[in-house]
Amino acid sequence: MAVTVQDGAALSLQKAVFARVAASAEMKTLIGDPVRLYDRVPRNNPWPGDYISFGAHGEDDDSAICAPGVIYEGEEHSLTMHVWSRSVSGPDLGATQAKKIAAALRRCLSNQEIAPDGHHLLHLTHASTNTFADPDGLTTHTVVVFSAQTESSL
Predict the structure, then answer these.
(1) Is 4 among the domain residues?
(2) Taking the CA atoms of the chain, what radius of gyration do you get in angstroms?
(3) Could you report the per-residue pLDDT of 61-116, keeping only the tens digit for each?
(4) Measured between alpha carbons, how far apart are the two ends of the chain, in Å?
């Protein structure tokens, strides 16, 4: 009998989000093709161009006993993504470009059909966006937070 290992809900959700962003024509236009979306940003490389990185991912148990012997297995998620821009010429200065990328990210992910392996996504919605100048004086940084709820589909 073969045994399979299921990814946890957080990892499955991150993989599904990555796939959705990577397939988006709008995101490819804004952050490259293939998209510059990183779990861990490559170090010791020149600036890759505007990009997005995964940030903190909080996961809270939302499981419950629905009836004797019936257990609902669910999780609440807070998924943070970081937009980084150094656009320095034309109408798309860093803050403008970072806000455009963040808006496109919200359109790409909020209330869309996304299928994490082994889990059912009940909702993925935009929670907040904050844009500010990075301390390096060159980069605009936008933090985009999403709220999600998943349940096990197994």
Answers:
(1) no
(2) 18
(3) 777 777 676 666 788 999 999 999 987 765 557 889 999 999 999 999 999 999 99
(4) 17
